[in-house]
């Protein structure tokens, strides 16, 4: 048999090692470590895996992950035992074990906290041991992933000594998934949740999804759209949700649901949903009790109320606090929470749309229950490529506040354009509200260190779907990864996250790593340059939000149009939000008012957000606004061409399937960038009446041509 | 290096061989042949692959398939050469090669025809050679797949001598895919065609799709829904279609499109779509020229006109022939065809719906161009679990007729219930129309042997989608496979097809093969038993068509309701289609009228289709109709339970992932079967006013409960 077996093996191995990669494995690839000596060093340093007998589910998951990971990375099956039997054991320990307590002290464990872990290589009886120690099972699971990431990153095990704990308690994905499997603002296929087939029929992908979340430290997911459907709260659907919860639970991922405020009417048979009506409160209490009977570890509700047509407490002349507190009281006995979204702008409020969240919510500061978290988008408008941070973060000192970031690229090229978002999120997390004086960053408000603690929440609107590679654009996996890593540790730098992800996903070829890191780190600014530079916002095409639409002027409401936002006229361009205009600026700390209020000191990347600027205004470059604007659009196009050159230089260094996947998207992105440049410059030129400066390529078609393009997108 | 390499290899191999199977590979698995001696025998008999230099695309595909297939099956890399260099060469030959002409004679080549192949093992200079010989490249490709199937089936190569040619020229899938990626009557995810990303971005799955079609002999595909969208004919979309055609071409798969009859108005800017208006004809001629400039091997149009609200020639008082011929003249210069669907029933025609196709089309016999094929669903109603064949097949002797079969299980449990459809399709293909006397089967009419030849067409409405396993239910892959095999050779038995597919998909374990074959072959009749036994039809739930809806009585039109079809009353059950009723029977040959017209001789599986039968009618079993009906529903449920026992008996004989996938669906199917039985019996009992016979389980809920169930299906 042997010769034939070997023949069989080697030839099977060939296609395996060379095989194209469809991206399904994400950053959990566990391919063999190419360097034999390193592989041997690791194999020598991990002789067996020691876990307690009858491990609980999360520990069993940690064990399975370590076994599969080490088999892949080292090409060896590391034995699993319940007591250390030899030197170089890898031990998953709990502090109650006295032997462990001796080597991991109280302070270490306090630092590890509820969900964190200690990774430590220690000398032991003349040899060594590797420890993963945590106060809870979840910490052991996160520690196992951290150790595997350490090996995948080819770092040494000698003197391994890491203590890591998440700074924010509830690290959640928000899925804007409709129950018909359409994903609102989803660009990676369709919803992963197969409602019609549940609960009996369970896609194995549910477990892979939860495992991916756990691998980057996420511990919860809101599986339904904020534009909610009350059906999800009916008994047949709760049984389906319970099936999903069962699949997610071994990976420490809890389920949350969106609550449609009018559910008591739609599925409860009541005449009203007035939050102060005892019958309504009673209905929710009964419904919540039913939910927790079905899903004992249910996390709580996310609510979009009185926003964009959603029902809410204001329909009954009640406040957001009235509505949120009623739901909060219902989930409180089960330690559930209510995440109440502050993304509101009223049809009967004609004030600058970006001011309305503060106007509505600031007066309610301090009126919310302790298990209510007001969830705020990073900017005051709506996930634009760049906007200033939302002033609401600084306006509610006595309310728990969560940050809602958007992983899916609704306004940043969806799953065609490359846009690594960590740098954008860093801008937000580092933004100083000055709420308790200098240094009151949004990160410190969200993690509770600035003031109110527990529960703390960070939410990312998911970019996942049924596409084989999960995110549509392979490189968009980096945004999912980055959100998870920042949710765990909001002090990580964009460079660190990009380098981690690139190495996990593409290996350690120096040229490939440095090239891909460079591509990622500049990519978001590139999108800003060819779509909405210098503080322009919301000038995209209507409806699907893909591509340019500066001409959009007639929609259901003024503040849905582009002209409302760019205010282009013969004099100039931009929205005056200073005292001479909407004075949205007044919602910020004096330090910001001083900086942003002056057209001379306002950073140019926010200039047109805060000011209506004359076409001839001198920019720092010495050019006029018009010339600068044109050159920014051209720069964006040039940068996409550079991205293509960079990627093409990697041909042969990464597998053909992934190379082609990205190359095709970059080719399309160049067309779209040119489309943005030509559409916007032709449109704005109608007002500026100035020629294109040298260096800017003229459009090849008249404006009308560009207005047509995106009308050919049925169903998108 | 070697020891480490071996360690690496064996441990990588382990998960590979044991790895769960997600079904993506379909029947093209090419896993190593377990029997070492057989593997050795094959490896000895195929020493090298000989193909001509600079092979054209289809031959290159054949080469690649053979190399990949033999590597997988034999674990050996068989060298590819352009001239035979040693004994046991496998030679892909063309008859122009004189050496080949000597061993494959004229008669053989005539038999192989345009697309067929000769597979032959011959003695040569004291040794042996294996030949794949064909008149065209496509034959070499089909021959390569046939040879691999031969090896996958573990058949001997000694004395290999096969000549095979398709009996029907155009073997097509019909995709009812909307351009927003919804699939009408699709139950395997969403449309594979990513319109927004094309033409630049091309899912590798496009090639895998075309390869799968080629592997079962299909050579064309209609990629858009018969409920058509004119957008597909605009220049931007034709560029996208051309990209798909480019991906399909190396596998010999040609693209066809559905033509929306009102396209000249919607995208052409004309005031009319009147087929006799010269401007309309000219517009189509220009559009067709544009299509062929973009897609030189474009196949032609499929049209649904004046049916279910679709526009058509009757809107202008013209006939179906007027409309079809106008389009046929446009594509004729390019050898294109027009497939004109006969699925019509008019809102202003109150006659029995099943009669209307003959009423409308029979008078047009002989009036269609030679490149028009009238495409007829297998039955006169609409893909019911069982109906008699469509009488239209026998009513148009001077018109080319195509059979439209439905692979997707719209009325047979979609992708939850197991229903192997080959036995149903055999009933249709073998049905004798008596059009030219006894033996004028539908198969002989469709393949042209009965009368009119060229072009001949068979169409199957696809059951494919974005689900990883292509068809939603893993075992529904067998229906895709069966359609392809029957399209190639409509004389294959259901047993042969089932056995082929089972062995290709699950291997050769005797118990597994015989059990799965048995499950497949009985499964369609089981669905008939628990849903629409004894000739009942169209009593499913409204809209989504999943599950029972015998109570459906108020819809847009009477002939969309269930009560229209079952006619249940105090006297009895069933639709009288004899002379005393609608006399649809008169559309069939006298032989059928005699057999079906008499309630005593009418086969019981069509009894209620043709007759309104009293509840007390004595059935062949001696039971009353009511008791027989009840027992059939119970039998259906019992048979599903048997399917579950059969499948459970295979645990451990097939991989866990596929075992669980099917087990979960069978568990759900049992619930649905019980739901069918209880819903229908409770409902019909209101009329029969008779008790359930012994042996039939009583419903656990009142009728109202069952009416509610399926209302909780948002978006499905």
Automatic annotation (TrEMBL), chains A, B:
Segments forming domain Glycosyl hydrolase family 67 C-terminal: 471-696
Residue ranges of the TM segments: none
One Gene Ontology cellular component annotation held by this UniProt entry: extracellular region
UniProt keyword Hydrolase present: yes
Domain Glycosyl hydrolase family 67 catalytic: 151-470
InterPro entries, per the entry: A-glucoronidase_C_sf (IPR037054), GH (IPR017853), Glyco_hydro_67_aGlcAse (IPR011395), Glyco_hydro_67_aGlcAse_N (IPR005154), Glyco_hydro_67_C (IPR011099), Glyco_hydro_67_cat (IPR011100), Hex-like_dom2 (IPR029018)
Single Gene Ontology BP annotation: xylan catabolic process
UniProt similarity note: Belongs to the glycosyl hydrolase 67 family.
This protein's name: Xylan alpha-1,2-glucuronidase
Lineage: Bacteria, Pseudomonadati, Verrucomicrobiota, Opitutia, Opitutales
